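Re: uridine-5'-diphosphate structure - here you go.
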Amino acid sequence: MKKISMIVPCYNEEKNVTKFFEEVKKVYENHNEYKLEIIFIDDGSTDDTLKELKNIAKDKTFTIKVLSFSRNFGKESALFAGLKNAKGDYTLLIDADMQQQPSLTLKMAELLDKNDEYDCVCYCQENRKESKSMIWLKKTFYNFMNKISEVELKQGASDFRMFRKNVKDAILELEEYCRFSKGIFSWVGFNTIYLKYTPEERANGKTKWGFFKLFKYGINGIMSFSTTPLRISTILGLIMSLLSFLYLLVVFIQKVFFEVSVPGYPTIVICILLIGGIQLLFLGIIGEYIGKIYMEGKKRPLYITKEIITNDKESKKSL
Ligand code: UDP
Ligand code: MG
């Protein structure tokens, strides 16, 4: 019998977690070929999510573990904590808001069972209800990222994945602080099969990923997997230097041979503003990279667990 570790990050999902658990129960209760271990991560929720999760942990149908963080560390940290605690042959990442239907996960397990050559099954989002501008922005980001980085990101590929132990162990070896899991999945390699699914509407509540959070996440992704922005500054610096030198020659020739006295005030102002702007922009980019090095250098833990609740006797012993 194969054991599946289901990792569910939860941040303010009080109205969703019980519904989610009931749905999982419906899907897996009568499937004797899989043994389920559910790891809920309460990512510092400020509502009653933890209370609901404690109630769920009383259920004896599956092994249930609830890790409660001391504050909100973000979904990436929650997933990492889940991976650290996963003991199954297969590891599954799934959201708590029912956008990713638990019923779809059986197909993932069956695919891994039947095809030894696949290490990971990933669902790609299709027809996600989003504004046209958001769809365009995401598409541009993926194209840009694929051009400038060593990793290849697949359009619409989400965290909704199931993978074998070897993939999980490889991901855990990447202990970086600034995590961008889409890139990490691609970086570790392995054979991935992509399936399509249409995300459901969120059962309750609102998405935690507003425009600015996504923008920050995107920048983090670029910085984690590419140093091309730094190279652009070098190339742009070279071009600017060359142009300035050519202009210097023009001014010099005009002055010496043609006695042209150029008033030149607008040119100087434009040059100063342009060069100043570009310098500041790239100082900012370099600063961002230094900031990342600074954060990595501190070697802070990715999360702090406040409480662990489990219905598993074996796990209880080691707590
Ligand atoms: N989540 C989390 N920590 C956070 C933000 C989100 O654990 O800081 C969880 C959230 O509870 C949900 C999943 O990550 O289970 C996906 O979040 P959300 O539905 O807001 O993202 P979207 O589906 O809109 O991409
Ligand atoms: Mg969601």
